[in-house]
Amino acid sequence: MKKILVTGGTVFVSRYIAEYYVAKGYEVYVINRNTREQSKGVTLIQSDRHELGEKLSGYHFDLVIDTGYTAEDVNTLLDAIESYDDYVLISSSAVYPEYETQPFEGTSKTDVNKYWGIYGTNKIEAEKILLNSNPNAYIVRPPYLYGPMNNVYREAFVFDCALADRKFYLPRDGEMKLQFFHVGDLCRFIDILMGEKPSQHIFNVGNKEAISIREWAKLCYQTIGETAEFVNVYDDIDQRNYFSFYDYEYYLDVTGQEKLMPETKPLSDGLKESFEWYKSNMDKVNKKPYFEYIDNNL
Hints:
Blueprint: E1 3-7, H1 12-23, E2 27-32, E3 43-46, E4 60-66, H2 71-80, E5 83-90, H3 118-133, E6 138-141, E7 144-146, H4 155-163, E8 168-171, E9 177-178, E10 180-182, H5 183-196, E11 202-204, E12 211-212, H6 213-223, E13 230-233, H7 255-260, H8 267-279, H9 290-297
Parallel strand pairs: 1-2, 1-4, 2-3, 4-5, 5-6, 6-11, 7-10, 8-13
Antiparallel strand pairs: 9-12
Helix pairs in contact: 2-3, 4-6
């Protein structure tokens, strides 16, 4: 039985990863402070990841899956781990500067992105620390992740609009493109990396095709059997006041991923999974006051 260490394990990506590998019959360990409900089947190593001390002493892990955000996150974990075989860092497309030529490739320049700021630069430093310590580690850079357990108010916001029979407010003409990746496809790709052990160690991951925000909202409404009616907002205001994404369109080249994993989950199927989870977990999403802003200002 393989032993897997997942950092976090209580929210969205890390929680989904932990439960995915529990379902596959692996021995899954999670590191967190035990301030949230733990997933069934995991073994908790209760600790702040910056204060691990000797808590990983005596353990050997076949795979470490790290959702760390900073160089310090990675450094302290590497210092604490006594023995492991493989390491995968879940990084982000936020490492690419908005001014760089698109589509971004895995070899594209990394630098500060004005939309993502310190989040992106911290991920850059985390990647560097890891690869300096272990050049054989793998780094994956997803676009917008979605799916069950998503606690970010993205597809859930559109579901709420549809459930309340509200019109959906689109920035400008609604043609800005978004690129998504289902969290289950992220796990499948990690499986493939561990099976294939490719010589490439940095991968962009995501659905090959981007989708306009208009079409994405339509799909979210259709997921619960409703038809979206739109209001276009052309006012010069920050769309993050009433919409879930920055005014920033980007596109990742996922050729490397496609060679190893040609198929990804259709967005319509993934959104159905998201909604099935959301129906029973509405309180687990970090909701923002978009409705209030729309009602008072638009």
